[in-house]
Design brief:
- By secondary structure, this protein is α+β, with helices and mostly antiparallel strands.
- The chain contains 11 helices and 20 strands.
- The strands form 6 sheets. It has a 5-stranded antiparallel beta sheet with strand order 6-7-12-10-11. The protein has a 4-stranded mixed beta sheet with strand order 1-2-5-3, covered by helices on one side.
- The longest helix is centred in the C-terminal third of the chain and has 19 residues.
- The relative contact order is 0.12.
- Bound molecules: uridine-diphosphate-2(N-acetylglucosaminyl) butyric acid.
- The site of uridine-diphosphate-2(N-acetylglucosaminyl) butyric acid has 16 residues, from strand 13 and helix 10.
Length: 378
């Protein structure tokens, strides 16, 4: 009878529990159950994955697709966990991407082609390329997260975006199990956006969210390197130090210092970097805001639109240092939401989202602009 009872329970609660009953203990891949995710998200939110597979190469993904129980589960890809807010335990099968590897894959007349496994730490890649004598990624030093996540939101900082240094990537199609490569145009990069952020409605749909898992990324680093120094923070460093022709290593050191002074180190204070995107507005909308708030920080874009500093808008609404439960607005950069409870008393994802919504409402009421969150809410 117990077997019967067991199978009845399974059929009632469906897929996820059936999986927990674990007909898959003999599965060849590295499957773990009830895995604490606190160490795997930079906010330090406490939540668990019911099931997690560590993906070290394509064969681990193929094993998931070949497993009759695992292949039917919803999936959640996890990189460095630096751009997510966990609002509860994750019921989907977590694919934790740990593909290793850093190498010079090729060189052309103009570029070094560097290939990195999706599981490599982004900052370690930046440091490694400089150690090897391949400059070009230095402005993006200290961005938290993994290499595999970098194309997803087209990371960028201090005047350089991933798309400026990107060559191609390899990804696996979770519908078909095929590995395919994409060039920059095929990735559809724009400001903090790519095809990997857009849902796939079907086989002909261009969106690849939920469909493709990035396993390797290649970067084209210029042999005739030129420094990118067009940011006020970097100009200030040049003035302060008197160094007007910095090399890539010098810029790397400056960027690390600038970020450490302004942004919280996730190892010390949990956070997911900028919580909102910088909004763009028409010149008319901007003129309207300037008429009311002459100090609004804004930048003219090449296409005629104007980018506003979301951090300034939030700051102007008086949010620095404000909290909801253990979630708070960082007191040195209003664009960053932080976990004020540390590891022992962490904020919840619900507190982070309540705070985020309150910020959106107040910025909307004052400026008529709806801020768009940057991290993925799970
Ligand atoms: N500002 C304020 N108050 C604040 C925060 C900012 O007045 O509380 C003002 C600053 O004084 C400055 C302007 O807003 O004049 C812009 O601030 P900052 O230079 O710090 O850059 P940001 O626009 O807030 C963006 C990226 C960062 C990236 C930096 C440097 C986005 C959403 N954020 O921040 O990226 O490091 O520029 O390039 O585009 C990330 O995406 O996680 C991230 C950290």
């Amino acid at each position: 009878t117990s077997t019967k009872f067991g199978s009845q329970t399974v059929s009632k609660v469906g897929m996820v529990l059936k999986f927990q009953g674990c007909q898959c203990d003999n599965s060849p891949m590295n499957l773990e159950k009830n895995v604490p995710l606190q160490p795997y998200n930079t906010f330090g939110i406490a939540a668990k994955a019911q099931a997690l597979v560590r993906v070290r190469d394509e064969s681990d993904l193929r094993a998931v697709l070949a497993d009759p129980h695992l292949s039917t589960l919803p999936r959640q890809v996890l990189g460095g966990g630096s751009n997510i807010v966990l609002t509860g335990d994750v019921k989907a099968l977590v694919l934790k991407i740990e593909v290793p590897g850093l190498r010079l894959a090729n060189e052309t007349e103009k570029h070094w082609i560097i290939e990195a496994g999706a599981g490599e730490n982004w900052h370690d890649l930046v440091a490694w390329t400089l150690d090897q004598g391949y400059p070009g990624l230095e402005n993006m030093a200290l961005i938290p997260g993994t290499v595999g996540a970098s194309p997803v939101q087209n990371i960028g900082a201090y005047g350089v975006e991933l798309q400026d240094r990107f060559e191609s990537l390899d990804a696996m199609d979770l519908f078909t199990g095929e590995v395919f490569s994409l060039n920059a145009a095929q990735c559809g990069f724009s400001y903090r956006d790519s095809v990997f952020k857009h849902a796939s409605g079907g086989p002909d749909d261009l969106g690849l969210a939920g469909r493709a898992v990035i396993v390797r990324v290649r970067f084209a680093l210029p042999k005739r390197w030129k420094p990118e120094l067009g940011y006020a923070d970097l100009e200030r460093k040049m003035q302060d130090t008197g160094i007007h022709t910095p090399d890539a290593r010098q810029i790397f050191d400056w960027i690390c210092a600038i970020r450490r002074a302004k942004l919280p180190d996730p190892a010390v204070i949990g956070n997911a970097g900028s919580f909102f995107k910088n909004p763009t507005v028409t010149p008319e909308q901007c003129a309207d805001i300037i008429a009311r708030d002459p100090k609004v920080v804004h930048y003219h874009l090449d296409d005629g639109r104007i980018k506003l500093a979301a951090g300034w808008l939030i700051d102007a609404c008086g949010w620095k240092g404000k909290t909801v439960g253990h979630a708070g607005v960082y007191d040195k950069q209003a664009l960053v939401l932080v976990n004020k409870g540390g590891r022992d008393n962490p904020c919840t994802g619900g507190e982070v989202m309540t705070l985020a919504k309150a910020i959106q409402t107040s910025v909307y009421e004052r400026f008529g602009i709806l801020l768009e969150p940057e991290p993925v809410v799970i």
